[in-house]
Design a protein that fits this description.
Blueprint (H helix, E strand, L loop, with lengths): L2 H7 L6 H7 L2 E4 L8 H10 L3 E7 L10 H18 L4 E4 L14 E8 L3 H12 L3 E9 L7 H17 L6 E8 L5 H13 L10 E8 L4 E4 L9 E4 L3 E8 L4 E6 L3 E6 L5 E4 L18 E6 L5 H11 L5 E6 L11 E4 H7 L5 E5 L1 E4 L5 H4 L5 E5 L4 H12 L5 H4 L2 E6 L7 H11 L15 H12 L13 H11 L6 E6 L23
Parallel strand pairs: 1-2, 2-4, 4-5, 5-6, 6-14, 14-15, 15-17, 16-18, 17-19, 19-20, 20-21
Antiparallel strand pairs: 3-9, 7-10, 7-13, 8-9, 8-12, 10-11, 11-12
Length: 519
């Protein structure tokens, strides 16, 4: 279940403190969450500073009405403790004694894998929204074999919108990777609605109100997943303030409990519901994750490039590095690759510096000002054997109206089989190879040492009130330092079947995507 932990437990006379200090990476894979041992594992992990934590919730639930609630109870404890920072509930109707603890360590990189069972996914998303912070967060959802695939994927986007991008979310992530699910126009619509309503299951038709509910310590609650089990429930061990939806017809309140997803209670005197002010339902919305600089989307399928652009317009405003990959075999209608117009992409991710693409065709319909000012520095394309993509890459290198001709320093293009390229594509590849080694800086000769010393002295003296440097425009300063910088040469790789390892690939442990694993 947890190889590192089990090995450490086997060491003789090792104290709990020593055990916690030795745990840096932990993997919970194919775990029997109905076992009480899981609680002890979570307690130990909560006291360790983890560089990496992998939690695989795929295939951990079964249809047994006796063991499934036990597993969900323990999963809720693990998730609320390791992600939210403390356990929130005690179990009712079972022999499980859930310890009341608060997390003392922290998790730097968190990897989460799910199957089509939505109970664990919603509980984890609820926990993420409560205020989690990570250097890197990766989520993989395997829903390929679902009969109601479209519905499940749309619900995934709804919960992701709530957990990561809604106004009520406290989640902070520097690097985010989402994979396994597809993106459709209906999924985009429900994503936007969930973001606007700050609730993962938006309902714009019924007589409902959205708001916050404060539930006191000691109140009994029942997660939606347990509705058919009358003998089991949860009791809050802390007062909780939760996002909620009030149904005026039934007088019931659905609220989101970290670790457990949606629960139901009556809006009585002990539980105070405070409705929102009028929600902003305009189309012009921008979602934001604090500190997000890198976004990776490894999608099973995408309905169209327009849908992808619309999603990135919502969530990509601060992104510096973007990875887009469409799984092989899910390349859209008629097995055609998704086409992305850089003219439309540039305004969606205006600060982008690195772009990594796989099974995606790029083109430029026509120029606009945002594309001209787009400061792309790195472009990597895998399986780029179409003429449109190759022509676009060449244009980024030679079109003097584009900023990329001066700043695109790394270009990597991988084609499937060179011998299968048509003459046009071969000619474009040859033209691109002619730009390898070009100098990018304003000056091709290195700045003299004496001049560098003068510039350093000026910068060091910039805090002086008499310094003229304070009156120079920022754009002028940029040009000066570009001129003074060491001359940079453009590097490019034109690869046949990409002998180097791709940054995006799906081979790996238990069929999980390899982007989940970190060096």
């Amino acid at each position: 279940m947890l190889l590192v932990l089990m090995k450490l437990w086997s060491k003789p006379r090792m104290s709990t403190t020593e055990l916690e200090l030795e745990i840096h990476s932990a993997y919970m894979d194919r775990t029997e969450f109905s076992s009480p041992d899981v609680l002890e594992v979570a307690v130990v992990l909560s006291r360790a500073d983890l560089t990496f934590l992998y939690l695989n919730f795929a295939d951990v639930l079964d249809s047994d009405q006796n063991t499934e609630p036990l597993a969900l109870t323990n999963i809720g404890f693990v998730v609320s403790t390791l992600i939210c920072g403390r356990s929130l509930c005690a179990s009712i109707g079972t022999d499980i004694e859930i310890p009341l603890i608060e997390r003392q360590g922290h998790v730097r990189k968190l990897c989460l894998a799910f199957d089509s069972s939505f109970h664990t996914f919603t509980g984890v998303c609820a926990a993420l929204a409560s205020g989690a912070s990570f250097g890197r967060l990766a989520l993989w959802v395997d829903v390929d074999e679902q009969a109601n695939l479209q519905v499940v994927q749309d619900e995934c986007w709804s919960w992701l919108a709530y957990a990561l991008w809604s106004k009520g979310s406290g989640c902070s992530v520097r690097e985010l990777a989402i994979g396994g699910i597809g993106l459709s126009r209906s999924g985009l619509s429900i994503f936007k609605a969930a973001f606007q309503q700050n609730y993962p299951e938006p309902d714009l038709m019924r007589n409902v109100e959205y708001g916050l509910i404060t539930i006191p310590e000691g109140v009994e609650v029942k997660p939606r997943a347990w509705m058919e089990n009358d003998s089991m429930g949860l009791m809050l061990t802390h007062e909780c303030r939760c996002r909620a939806r009030y149904n005026n017809a039934t007088k019931n309140v659905d609220f989101i409990l970290p670790g457990f997803g949606i629960c139901t209670t009556k809006a009585d005197n002990r539980s105070k519901f405070v409705p929102d002010a009028t929600a902003d339902l305009s189309d012009e919305v921008v979602a934001h994750i604090p500190n997000l600089g890198s976004l990776e989307l490894d999608l099973s399928q995408v309905e169209s490039g327009d849908v992808l652009d619309a999603l990135l317009k919502l969530i990509g405003s601060d992104v510096r590095s973007l990875t887009l990959s469409i799984q092989e075999g899910w390349l859209g209608v008629g097995n055609q690759r998704v086409k992305v117009d850089l003219r439309e992409l540039a305004p969606c991710v205006p600060h982008l510096e690195e772009l990594h693409l796989q099974n995606v065709t790029i083109f430029v319909s026509k120029h606009n000002e945002l594309l001209r000012r787009w400061g792309l520095k790195t472009l990597e394309m895998y399986e780029a054997d179409d003429a449109d993509s190759l022509d676009t890459c060449l244009r980024l290198l030679v079109d003097k109206t584009l900023r990329s001709t001066r700043e695109l320093s790394e270009l990597e293009i991988s084609v499937g089989q060179l011998e299968r390229l048509n003459p046009l594509a071969r000619g474009l590849m040859n033209a691109i190879s002619g730009h390898i080694g070009e100098f990018l800086s304003v000056a091709k000769d290195e700045f003299p040492s004496a001049s560098k010393a003068v510039m350093i002295s000026v910068v060091n003296d910039c805090h002086s009130p008499q310094s003229s440097l304070q009156y120079i425009d920022a754009s002028i300063l940029t040009l000066i330092f570009e001129f003074a910088a060491r001359a940079q040469q453009r590097s490019a790789w034109l690869l046949n079947s990409n002998p180097r390892k791709r940054k995006l690939h799906f081979c790996g442990w238990n069929s999980s995507p390899s982007f989940m694993y970190f060096e």
